[in-house]
Amino acid sequence: MDLRPPYPGYLDRLTKSLTHALPDNGPPPSHFAGVPERLGQAISAAVERRAQDIVTLSHDIHAKPELVYAEHESVRRLASLLADHGHDAEIGVFGIDTALRATARGTAGSDRPRVAILAEYDALPGIGHACGHNVIAAAAAGAFMALADVIRDLDGSVVLYGCPAEEGGGGKELMARAGAFDDVDAAVMLHPAGFEVSEHPWIGVRTIDVVYQGLTAHASMFPFLGRNALDAVVTAYNGISQLRQHILPSDRIHGIITDGGQKPNIVPGRAAASFFLRSVEPETLRELCDRARTIFEAAAHATGTKLEIEWDPVPVYLPVRNNSPLANRYAQHLVGRGRQVLPPGVIPDHLTASTDLGNVSVRIPAIHPTLKIAPADASIHTAEFAAHAISAEADRGCVDGAIGLALTAADFLTDAALRQATRDAFEDGGGALDVDALLA
Ligand SMILES: [Zn+2]
Ligand SMILES: [Zn+2]
């Protein structure tokens, strides 16, 4: 049988709808004055002056992909670019070898308000920078350096955080636990994609590893003595498959069997599986996990086996709480760069994934817009997307994105009404969550 992708009708219609949405429709307006115009122009010019260095950083990180918590060369290159421009950066902060911090503060006054600009630089096994985190690092570095140039004209301070291990290590959660965001008032970052939106429902994800213990026996001679752990995994897998029809459209469940036994003539005494459970709100994520847990337990009962569950061998990734006042400012700045930011609702909610920025966004106001560097049907986490991540479009994106992040941060630091609206929106969204207690 031919192995081929499904009929492309759905994807084609989606791609067309994105194209048609572009000409007359923009992102929601922002009603805030933001950064004074001349200061904004100085910030944009400060990014433009460093465009070549920013793009070089993007390509250098791309050329040497490093996996979660092993991003030594990538973080060193980021620190070295900052040093070339006169900024001290500390590597190994918050108890993580490959986390970075650089701070810019004015000569007088308070450190507050304080904005964090977040960089990522980890890659994926086998396919390198297929999530384009090299672009994130470059844009964040550019934004930080431009803001540092004008820091005397801004209130408060700016901190650049190099955040390791987004691809499954939960680096931002570990940094948050170590206090990285305790004295920060807002965080901004961007993520490359095939489309440009300022807000999107990025969903949370929990990992559940299950191990069933049964009783081994000769599968032919003494099967009645066995208790089959693989049967338990299969029962659980089928139960999860049945659950899938009756969950929220935004929920996602995917799993693999990691141990299915040793040999057909040995009744498996051990079998194991690993599942990702995703949902759009912390509360619905908790509900989904409760329903899954019931299925895993039922499979143990049904097969007479014993169940061990390990939740979250890596930290939970919480759903992103988008901060609209800040996201709208970012969108306006990207439109100002001649880019076409899609209005809300054009990208279907179910085209989504998870990020540990979610864990930041329930502690302080945050944004996670996407930056278009590829065609709309290009999927992240593919070799094709890794190639897009150093294309001319990606290089332009590094500069435009740096300007968008820098101006948004400057808006926040100079416009007290925007700061208040940002805070109000955060409180309306539920305020700061106690992440430890949330899923206990
Ligand atoms: Zn990714
Ligand atoms: Zn990513």
What keywords describe this structure?
four-stranded antiparallel sheet, binds zinc ion, 2 domains, alpha/beta, about 450 residues, 12 strands, six-stranded mixed sheet, Alpha-Beta Plaits, single chain, Aminopeptidase, elongated, 14 helices
Brief overview:
Helix content is 40%, strand content 15%.
Average pLDDT works out at: 95
Name given to the CATH homologous superfamily of the largest domain: Zn peptidases
**What is the third-level CATH name, the topology of the largest domain?**
Aminopeptidase
Termini, distance in Å?
47 Å
Domain unit count: 2
Runs in which pLDDT lies below 50 for 5 or more consecutive residues are: none
Mind telling me which CATH architecture of the largest domain this is? 3-Layer(aba) Sandwich
User: What overall form do the CA principal axes indicate?
Assistant: elongated
Total helical elements: 14
Rounded to an integer in angstroms, the radius of gyration calculated over CA atoms is: 24 Å
